[in-house]
Amino acid sequence: MKPCLLIVDDDQGIRTQMKWALNSDYEIVLAEDRATAVESFKANSPSVTLLDLGLPPHPNSCEEGLAVLSDLLALDRQAKIIIISGQGEKNNAIEAVGSGAYDFLCKPVEIDELKLILRRCIYVVNLEREYRDMQQKLRADVFEEMLGASPQMQGVFAFVRKVAATDAPVLLLGESGTGKELAAMAIHRRSARKDGPFIAINCNAIPENLLESELFGHEKGAFTGAHVQRKGLMESAGSGSLFLDEIGELPPPIQVKLLRFLQEQRFQRVGGRQEIQIDTRIIAATNVDLKEAVTKGKFREDLYFRLAVVVIKLPPLRDRGEDAEVLAQEFLQQFAAQCDKTGLRFGSDAIRAIRRHSWPGNVRELQNRVKRAIIMAEGKRVTAGDLELSDSAELVPAATLKQARENVERELVEQALKKHSGRISAAATDLGISRPTLYELMDKLGIGRSDGASQSSGEARKEKSSEPQKM
Ligand SMILES: Nc1ncnc2c1ncn2[C@@H]1O[C@H](COP(=O)(O)OP(=O)(O)OP(=O)(O)O)[C@@H](O)[C@H]1O
Ligand SMILES: [Mg+2]
Predict the structure, then answer these.
(1) What is the number of the ligand 1 atom nearest to the C-alpha of 174?
(2) Cα 394 to Cα 356: distance, rounded to the nearest angstrom
(3) Using CA atoms, how far apart are residues 238 and 245, in angstroms rounded to an integer?
(4) Measured from the CB, is residue 246 less than 6 Å from ligand 1?
(5) What is the Cα–Cα distance from 11 to 56, expressed in whole angstroms?
(6) Whose CA is nearest to atom 29 of ligand 1?
(7) By alpha-carbon position, which residue is closest to atom 8 of ligand 1?
(8) 331 or 417, which is more confident?
(9) Beta strands in 180-240 (DSSP E)
């Protein structure tokens, strides 16, 4: 597509001449005075405008031209306007550049010189556009401190936005280090409760006998050592949000109390009779299979259903396509700046290793490896070794040719599935085989159909053929 060029000149001869000279490289639109110039600028959003300063009703002064300049810049501060001034009016042209014009030419205009200036101007226009696009993309990839360009994470962001607007309890599921706490904070910050407190408690980190009073508070004399009345975290969270991490570890008596709170928004402090009413929002998280805990009788089913009104699953990092690389680059910038080691870059072996690794510890593992690598790196390049990752595929040692072939096949199939987040047709196209052949291959290699994208380390592979991994 040719860039659009607006030519504003009251002299029809000049307009026609310029049009013919520039027609092959630009989509030309013409205007002859202030009104048509503004109208055409609005209608065509030209990449560049050529503006004659001497326009009617004052063709012999620069007044009207400067007025057009300021009109157009008011419409778009980034507009690229090249001034064409009469002979001996260079000062006016310089004044125009001072007011925001991109450049100027004096009449008579040399077409070659004009073409050169235009090309340079279009180059700047394109650079600026690319920069804006990049900025916009970067903004789209960050959501409340969570970085994620993958469709999976964009889906999570969209879900969080919707859920934040409600008051419903939320259950966050996901492996360790996938960002459940960060998501909980995002929900809080995006909600109408954002000015209230966000209080987090790890249900597994507090001894059972203290947890109830920690959550619900106690009255004076409720137990030995309870010298004064104390409010619990539920009350402290008040009109904010309470984040119950590792909810699967909540002891049964406290499960009952939490269930009642979710049903009636009321509770009693330990040792108290008074009903306390609070409208705290509960956000819970776990990395264990809560449904299984329900089946085993460890977790109350009624509480599960109360909590799981809205469930958000944080996908494991290995299923987020290029996010591992994007996050690694971001962490490298952040941590390197903190360590006064700016200018560090990943070597190509490091990038390959980041792409191959299956990240069992998810984002937290990535953060830790990058932090360590920055300390270990010598010179300006971070290597796979600095990340303590292997650059080559970790192939299972093969005893026979058949086994070696299967190892390579498995490696390639798993890579393709990972790249396409488990989508069979896309992976088959990449591998140059048909879908049915890929299915056959997966069956032969014992790669589960729903979890093909999940793991690639040798250990994981051995497990996988017997039991598909859950996501
Ligand atoms: N999408 C992301 N963008 C940037 N940083 C992230 C992202 N997800 C997680 N992190 C960072 O990774 C670390 C682990 O995240 P977080 O504590 O939220 O995980 P988690 O799922 O709660 O883990 P666990 O189950 O072990 O408690 C934190 O330092 C967090 O800031
Ligand atoms: Mg956590």
Answers:
(1) 21
(2) 9
(3) 18
(4) no
(5) 10
(6) 364
(7) 179
(8) 331
(9) 198-202
**pLDDT above 70 covers what percent of the chain?**
93
326 lines ligand 1 (CB under 6 A): no
Phi-psi region of 413 (alpha: psi -120 to 50; beta: other; left: phi over 0): alpha
Q: What is the pLDDT of residues 395-425, one digit of tens each?
A: 445 667 777 778 778 888 888 888 888 889 9
Tokens representing residue 435 in the block? 């879908």
Return the beta strands (E) in 258-309 as ranges.
266-267, 276-277, 281-286
Lowest mean pLDDT among 60-64, 73-77, 366-370: 60-64
Task: Name the β-bridge partners of 84.
Answer: 52, 105
Quick one: pLDDT at residue 398?
A: 60
pTM, rounded to two decimals:
0.62
In short, whether 241's Cβ falls inside 6 Å of ligand 1 is: no
Cα separation values, 59 from 14, 50, 51, 55, Å? 14, 16, 13, 4
Distance 355 CA to ligand 2 centre (A): 24
362 lines ligand 1 (CB under 6 A): no
Strands (E), 298-384: 310-313, 345-346, 381-382
Q: Ligand 1, residues 153, 198, 363, 367: which to mutate, most atoms within 8 A of Cβ?
A: 363
* Residue 213, ligand 1, Cβ within 6 A: no
- For ligand 1, whether the C-beta of 248 sits within 6 Å is no
